[in-house]
Design brief:
- The structure is a single chain.
- The chain is 34% helix and 26% strand.
- The chain is of the alpha/beta class and 209 residues long.
- The chain has one domain: Vaccinia Virus protein VP39 (Rossmann fold).
- It has a 7-stranded mixed beta sheet.
- Strand 4, helix 4 and strand 5 form a beta-alpha-beta unit.
- It starts with 7 loop residues before the first helix and ends with a strand.
- GO terms for molecular function: S-adenosylmethionine-dependent methyltransferase activity.
Length: 209
């Protein structure tokens, strides 16, 4: 069976279902990766864009030297994120509904751009990587945390078997790492395991100055 295609409608439907239980179901699974990405962004500091902010579960992990804007496509997830901010996160400047593939920001607007557990969700990963690159300042960083497909073994078999159900899951189970490596002025400076038995990976890119 072929991999299912993701589109905006299927993503919205999937995350409307996930929103009420997302933190309870995925919170502990994603803790290591979230904290690692937020710590890396805090080292950069300045204006930080979190693309795919979801319920805002990572927002408390950023340092006070960061001025964070979070965005997501899912209205249901953003309702929870806004509640978090209203409860007291002064370093968060805004929570916006926006398509990651069409960011409404000028070029070079952010010192650091973070995308956690996002790139396997979007219909056009290469287009999203172009946008993350575009809004990052020269000399800044683009930071990803994500699951990438195994090249062999039992996990690779499971991922391929799950691929046809990607539209129901809301992500690509068999997403290859090569799909985030297409931006010529982004140089990978770090790649390491980021929790849940090595299922997730932290990747840091430095943008040419």
């Amino acid at each position: 069976m072929a991999a299912a295609e993701l589109d905006t409608q299927s993503i919205q439907k999937a995350y409307a279902r996930w929103a009420p239980i997302y933190d309870a179901l995925f919170g502990s699974i994603t803790t290591t990766g979230r904290r690692a990405a937020a710590a890396a962004a805090t080292k950069v500091g300045g204006r930080v864009l979190e693309v795919g902010v979801g319920t805002g579960i990572a927002l408390p992990d950023y340092g006070q030297n960061c001025r964070v804007i979070g965005l997501d496509l899912s209205f249901d997830m953003l309702k929870i994120a806004r509640k978090r901010v209203d409860d007291g996160l002064p370093h968060v400047e805004g929570i916006l509904q926006m398509d990651a593939g069409r960011l409404a920001f000028p070029d070079a607007a952010f010192d650091c751009v973070v995308a956690m557990y996002l790139i396997t969700v979007v219909p056009d990963p290469e287009g999203v990587m172009r946008e993350l690159n575009r809004v990052c300042k020269p000399g800044g960083e683009v930071i990803l945390v994500n699951h990438f497909a195994a090249e062999s073994g039992i996990r690779a078999w499971v991922e391929k078997a799950a691929a046809p159900f990607g539209d129901k899951l809301g992500w690509h189970p068999d997403f290859p790492f090569s799909r985030v490596m297409g931006e010529a002025d982004l140089t990978m400076v770090e790649k390491r395991p980021a929790g849940f038995g090595g299922l997730f990976t932290l990747v840091r890119f430095k943008k040419a100055g």
